[in-house]
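so my prof wants the structure for this chain in the tokens format not the other one, which i didnt know existed until like an hour ago. anyway here's the sequence
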Amino acid sequence: MKAGKLGRRSLEENVLRHFKTKRKELLLGPSFGIDFAVIQCGDSYLITSMDPVTGELDDPGWYSVHVSCNDVATSGNRPQFLETTIMLGEDEPDERAGQIATGMARAASRLGVDIVGGHTERTMGLDHSVAVTTALGFGRTYVTAAGAREGDVIMMTKTAGIEGTSILAKVGGRGLNGLDEATLRRAAAMKGFLSVVEEAEAAFRAGGVHAMHDPTEGGILGGLYEMSVASGVGFEVHEARIPVHPVTKKVASALSVDPLRLIASGSLLISVDGGAADVVAHALSSAKVRATAIGRFGGTKRVLLRRSGRREEVDETVQDELWKFMDEMPHRPKRL
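here's what i got, hopefully its the right format
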């Protein structure tokens, strides 16, 4: 079996169809490609999302806080609270829980988020620890990944494959032997750029934003596919316009992975009204965040226009390059 997210059809057939929502307060429930749930609370909305971290073996607490907080931030609102779950591998010592909790606390402090509770256990059958967080925030308005419209400009922040680069720098093994130590340090340090909370807030406040999405597993292409399905509209993006950091290029080349399909927490996908694209770009620049227009939503097909001019259709849930790489490793590391 392939590691990573279930494909769209499997998720819908085996999971989502069993979840029937009944309460009128639930305005947005379980759905493919949607980052969070929305619950009516008086004259405001509770926005909440949960994410596990299973592929990062060194500092899963840090990563887990950022990925769930990013999901809430794609609504245009800041996360405010967190609940946590720490599941230790059956042979890991209690002190490992302390290491994970320390990472969670560091990330939460950086974002101004309070951890309000959770659960910690040692789990039979696990050979390494898993961290899970649920982020919550309140807002009076929001956007979702399902709001992209015909003709919208697709913008992305920062560069592709940020999270994947930081993880592969630590688990890439002998495949990275040809890279110098400075490059590997810079790759690992990219975990410091995982948050999209500030840029999501800045883009949303600028106006003209119809949808935002946090591209995680499956990378930039996976995130675009999810937005496209959720919104019911196709897209065309240009490979040559998608920014890839030079360090990511080196790591991806050394390990033969596609940076456009590499787990991409740290980048934000934004669907913007064409007339507001410059305003949003200026707002992001003022927040010291790089933003790039990479294509448009429209039509029914999902197309990546390669540098060669070849039109490549993105027609299924994208398996992340990180999982493909780790699946092919003869001996997976338990923890660094």
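also thought this was worth mentioning. The first strand starts at residue 26 and ends at 28.
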